[in-house]
Amino acid sequence: MRGLGGRTYIVTGAASGIGRATASRLLDEGALVMGADLHAPPDDVPEGKDEAGRWAFTRVDVTDESSVDEMVRAAVAFGGAVDGVLHAAGVAGGGPVHLLAATEWARVITVNLTGTYLVAKHVIAQMLRQPARPDGQRGSVVTLASIEGLEGTAGGSAYSASKGGVVLLTKNMAIDYAGRGIRVNAICPGFIATPMTDSVLGPGMEGPRADILREHKLGHRMGRPEEIAAVAAFLLSDEASFVTGHALPVDGGYTAGRDHGVTEMLGLSGPG
Ligand code: NAI
Fold first, then answer.
1. Which 3 state secondary structure label does DSSP give 215?
2. For residue 80, what pLDDT is reported?
3. Which residues pair with 8 in a beta bridge?
4. What stretch of H or E contains 87?
């Protein structure tokens, strides 16, 4: 994709799932990638720098401002600049509010929403210190919201609140920084086959899982991390030079609306 090669991107949540797939896609596109995560990377991914100098991995806690600041400094030391970020670090959690401990509420909001604020704050501050490119662009920030930030889900509470917050924080940042050459967009994935989803829809959750698969109209399946990574790469690239302020569902049609089976019942589905 145009504009990714040779540029430097931070990917948070890079040890797993969507972050890991995006780091890999950006490397395939010729970018330099600074992966960051609270946890160690998987065994096949080196911690520290790789031999070619195109990949580096550092630990970060996105809820800790000094740790986020250090991550951005490390990316500048590694690549010379920060051209964009895919902020995928996040946690699942929630429950009906009358049963939800305040500590659990705070955990989910702090990682998902405050973490997004802190990462955006330090990345954007760095981008503003960098000279604009000849086309006036300085960089691209991509946040991870969710379909659960666009519509409610039973029991979602803290998670939905955190992701709804990410959607509007993203739109506000898009407005605040458009004039200074920084684009800001959110991806709202449907259910994606990652360790996070496995932790929520594990054994005993076969019923809800089947129901969720039905709501993904494309293929009645979960999304793949690579399908989110492809959209992230697009939003980080110059191909998206006129795209900002979006909360883009990548959800196989989950949020397109409901199918109550009426056309099928009336025999109007047609061939195929
Ligand atoms: P995952 O659990 O596979 O990966 C998340 C990563 O974030 C983990 O490696 C974890 O160590 C890291 N992390 C958690 N807390 C952190 C902290 N305080 N500081 C730094 N890193 C931290 O999850 P997945 O599925 O890849 O999710 C990525 C993002 O996409 C999350 O924000 C999630 O809410 C969002 N999302 C995921 C969906 C799914 O179906 N998997 C659907 C919609 C949104």
1. helix
2. 96
3. 32
4. strand 84-87
Q: What is the spatial distance between Cα 87 and Cα 216, in angstroms, rounded to a whole number?
A: 24
Q: 2: which residues sit within 8 A by CB, 6+ positions away?
A: 237, 238, 239
Question: Pairing between strand 182-189 and 139-144?
Answer: parallel
| Residues facing residue 59 across a β-bridge | 37
- Whether 240 and 138 have beta carbons less than 8 Å apart is answered as no
Per DSSP, the three-state class of 94 is coil
Partnered with residue 11 across adjacent β-strands are 35, 86
CA distance 141 to 242: 14
Per-block mean pLDDT, blocks of 10 residues, the chain (272 long): 96 97 96 97 73 90 98 97 98 96 98 99 98 96 98 96 98 98 98 95 93 95 98 98 98 95 89 76
Name the residue with the closest Cα to ligand 1, atom 19: 61
d(CA 13, ligand 1 centre) in Å? 6
Task: Report the alpha-carbon distance of residue 68 to residue 91 in Å, rounded.
Answer: 17
24 contact partners, CB below 8 Å, separation of at least 6: 229
Separation in Å, CA 220 to CA 30, 150, 207, 249, 260: 33, 20, 14, 16, 15
Compute, in angstroms, the gap from residue 131 CA to the centroid of ligand 1: 32
Q: What is the pLDDT of residue 72?
A: 98
Tokens of 63: 């809820």
Q: Which residues are catalytic?
A: 159
In this prediction, residue 46 carries a pLDDT of 67
Whether 137 contacts 238, CB under 8 Å: yes
Question: Which tokens is 185 given?
Answer: 């967009």
